[in-house]
Amino acid sequence: MLRVLIRRGLQALPVALGITFLTFLLAYVSPGDPLLAYAPIDARSDADLARARSERGLDDPWFVQYGRWLQRVLQGDLGVSLVTQRPVVAEVAGAIRVTVGLSLAALLLSTVLGIGLGMVAALNRDGWLDHAIAVATFTTIGVPGFFLALLLVSVFSVQLGWLPTSGTRSAVPDAGGLWMLLDQARHAILPLLVLASDSAASLARYTRDHVVEVMEEAYVRTASAKGLSYQARNWRHAFPNALLPIVTVLGLRVPNVLAGSVIVETVFNWPGIGRLVVSSAIDKDIPVLLAVTLAFAIVTMLANLITDLTYAAIDPRVTHPS
Amino acid sequence: MRLPSKLLVGLVVVGLLVAFATIGDALMPWDASVRNPAARDTAPSVEHWLGTDRLGFDVLALVLRALRTSIAVGLVTSALVTVIGASVGLLAGYVGGRVDALIMRIADLVLAFPGLVLALAAVALLGPSMRNVVIVMTLLLWPMTARLIRSRVLSVRTWPFVDAARALGAGSWRIVLRHVFPQVAGTAVTAATLTTAAAILIEANLSFLGLSDPTLPSLGKLLASAQSQRILATRWWLWIPPGVALVSLILGLYLVGEGLRDRLVRRL
């Protein structure tokens, strides 16, 4: 287990480095001068700008700048936002928590929904329920998150008035703990549904096909033949074996869920790194943009690591290769 | 009664949308470049089938123009991705060894990261022109095609006719182009269809978020401007039509892709 952890950890490192390197390179070749865009109007004489450039080390070659940036990152210094003038660490730290919480909840929801629907479909193979689930999941995969979000907001928030249109909580100063909790849950329903829908649908399709496949395996037939009940056959023999590759599929969904968080956080105005990547990209706030891509790389890396470890934990063949 | 095949349904849906986008202009009374100052912010009527926006532009004409952008971006990106992805996949699968390991490692790297984040950063930094959007999407999408082609090549490579060709003295180029490629062409066509859908989806996301070519109309942009309670509550014609056009185009392409896969790939 430890061996798997160390090997995977070392493999993941170049990914994070590669992503930041790429972003840095893009920022470097990017047309336009961020300094010019954010310098005060009266400080825009050529001499002042030249001094500002050399003070910030912007005259050095890009690899020197990248090295310096990396060195500072390792010391926990991500620089200062060009827009808000606040330390980037403060901007990103809180935002990571929002996105990780949202994404984890969405993954959990999509796992429960996806595996549940997939199994129901597989057990009703070729019945009307199977076909209905097939049509529903196929359609869901083709609906872009932002359109789904607009549809849900239009129905549940605007027309019916049941749920808030955006934000993470209502602006009520002193309310009880339970009320606050319920309020936050109400705010989370639509974002979670939008973020989970795509993955739930792919997982359901995959689970269905895979369970159908496993049901035809010899050992499942043997289980039936030796007189095991329908329940015992499914829960003890078929499902555990069907579950294995589903963990991998779940891991592969992580990048999609994180990409989805960009849309969901923007539409529902959640203060996560997804919204931050959009705003910093539009504002060309390069220190924030670099930090946010790094944050995304680290979150993705950790998620992949967790998937691998889960896989190793439930599949004895990984930890004890024959 | 036999249900119509996925491929047929998909082809009809995509065909209708493409036909509408290319020749719809001729059938409609309004052009997207002409405003009707007498009809600003109006509901659907005989004159404007899907109403008009705040400035007096015909919504149906706007959707048509936006569909054109989507289809063009999808096709151009898909062509680039298929050529690059198929070449890389053929190379990795046929040559194998270190080349294969390196290429697949890079592909994994691209696939492991949320592509939209990288696309946003890249488009914002390089400038939001359609050329840059296409380049960025090509860089994000080639690994899917390369992987599909590679895995197909790995099995085709072991088939007897490849050995036979080699025994007859055929060179690597000839084997790859004349013997291996025809066997993976079906996979390439399927991948191209799915890539078109993926590119249309990414472009829609980018333009929805405000990061695509500001000079071109797009479905994402039309939907982005509907993000207000007033429009969502009372003006369905401004946002439902572009959304439905986008969803039908993507689902149609998925159906064509799955239909093609069932016909061209499974049979092999």
Which characteristics define this entry?
heterodimer, A: 322 residues, mainly alpha, 13 helices, globular, B: 268 residues, elongated
Structure explained in plain terms:
The complex is a heterodimer of chains A (322) and B (268). The mean pLDDT of chain A is 81. Helices cover 78% and strands 0% of the residues of chain A. The two termini of chain A are 15 Å apart. With 322 residues, chain A is an all-alpha fold. Chain A is built from 13 helices and no strands. With 268 residues, chain B is mostly helical. Chain B contains ten helices and no strands.
Number of separate strands of chain B = 0
Sequence stretches where pLDDT stays below 50 over 5 or more residues of chain B: none
The largest inter-chain interface, given as chain pair and residues per side, is:
A-B, 48 and 40 residues
Low-confidence stretches of chain A: none
Strand and helix order of chain B: HHHHHHHHHH
Number of strands of chain A: 0
